[in-house]
Amino acid sequence: MDVAARVTSKGQVTIPKAVRDALGIAEGDQVVFRIERHRAVLARTSDLLDLAGAVGVPAARRGAAWDEVRAATRRSRVAR
């Protein structure tokens, strides 16, 4: 889908409705622009809560205190 939009004197662009609908962008959502060569790619950013459960946690690590997880991560980085 190619949809055009005009840049204002303040450098602003309104995301066309067809694009918002296709990406599921609603008021208050955040988007990210990624530059790829001579193009900008627009993507809707995920809410961090939407990512909950996206990464598997080994059974031995479940329920570990965050302080211990961070300390273990730091120790493993230093060991490299």
Overview of the structural elements:
The protein is an alpha+beta fold and 80 residues long. It has a domain at 1-47: Pemi-like Protein 1, Chain: D. It is 26% helix and 15% strand. It contains 2 helices and 2 strands, in the order H-E-E-H. It has helices at 17-23, 66-79; strands at residues 31-36, 39-44. It has a two-stranded antiparallel ribbon with strand order 1-2. It starts with 16 loop residues before the first helix and ends with a helix.
**Largest sheet report:** 2 strands, antiparallel
Give the SSE string: HEEH
Can you count the beta strands? 2
Which structural class should the secondary elements be placed in? alpha+beta
The helix content is 25-40%
Low-confidence stretches: none
Shape: elongated
Number of helices: 2
Reading off the top of the CATH hierarchy, the class of the domain at 1-47 is best stated as Mainly Beta
